[in-house]
Amino acid sequence: MITHTLTSRRRLLKSAAAGAAVAVTGFPAILKAAPSQMMIATGGGKLEEAYAKVHFAPYTAKTGIKIVTGPNTSAKLKAMVEAKNYEWDLCQVAAEFAAQAALQGLLEPLDYGVIDKSKMLAGTAHPHFIMSDVAAYHIAWNTKNVKSGAPQNWAEFWKASGRRGLWKRPFQTMEVALMADGVDKDKLYPLDVERAFKSLDKIKSSTLFWNTGAQSAQILIDGEVEVSATWNGRVHDPKLGGAPVDYHFNQALFVSDAWAIPKGAPNKKEAMEFIAMAMSAKNQADFSAIIPYGPTNTAAMPMIDAKIAPALPSSEQNFKKGSFLDVNYWAANGDKVGERFNKWVL
């Protein structure tokens, strides 16, 4: 009798719930099936190769959802969201671009009930994107051309003899110009744009402005410049392979990639779960073991081999030497400063 009563009550509750769903929607409630695949937009290259091993394969093994990839072109994100015609489920983009996209309303809010941000480096977990690694824009030099007295800071870099290289973009380049002029690495923002241009004026005639990361490393290895700004991931492997290049993290400007979800993307639940896994301490440690970008999850660092840590920007010995690029500053000011920089450099 008791069993019959409980069963009847359960049936009654189920019927009431189904009736409520029909009353609200006009149709019975139907659970959304998990997708068979997800499209992730990335920058390609070695970064995607690392993602494939560390994130994509484990996620597919756990969920059965296949990961396919495509290029993360900025124009496509805007077009997709405005047309509500989605090709991407989530994307890996530069954090400064993610900040701008968030400002334009192109990204979903992240669910930090699913994604654990409790161990994240300060300033890396944003409402609409999460910074996934730490790379460094820093000083490097050709060891054949500079046998001793390599510049230890940006002021010395500005005074170095011979030719130097800088990125042909305002973000990161403006910051190091200010540090060269004596601005403290932790007091860069808001940028004193006038002061930065005056600092750049001093070295413009003896500077090669490069366009790509690959070019920044090549001009150093070939000895086309004596010193150059570049990213640690561009010179790490060449140095290990015996190329005439060296670098340090003094006054480095830390930059990041970020995970983000297009606004309105239909598979955001699965995308959130992917990000949660990718930001876990284990996945971040595994990633830094195969590519020299540091974790943003501080719980990952103790898992990383002590032999690898000295090459990572966010390791204890290196992180205190630099400071983060302020992505929110560039999201708000990038177009205006960029237009002026482009006119100046030409």
Identify the CATH architecture of the largest domain.
Answer: 3-Layer(aba) Sandwich
Domain count: 2
| Cα-to-Cα separation, first versus last residue | 89 Å
Number of strands: 12
Estimated radius of gyration: 24 Å
CATH class designation of the largest domain: Alpha Beta
How is the biggest beta sheet arranged?
7 strands, mixed
What is the chain-wise order of helices and strands?
HEHEHEHEEHEHHEHEHEEEHHHEH
The CATH topology of the largest domain: D-Maltodextrin-Binding Protein, domain 2
The gross shape turns out to be globular
Q: What is the typical, i.e. mean, pLDDT?
A: 92
Number of helices: 13
Oligomeric composition of the shown chains: single chain
Strand fraction: 15-25%
User: Structural class, from helix and strand content?
Assistant: alpha/beta
Spans of at least 5 consecutive residues with low confidence: 1-30
CATH homologous group name of the largest domain: Periplasmic binding protein-like II
Helix content: 40-55%
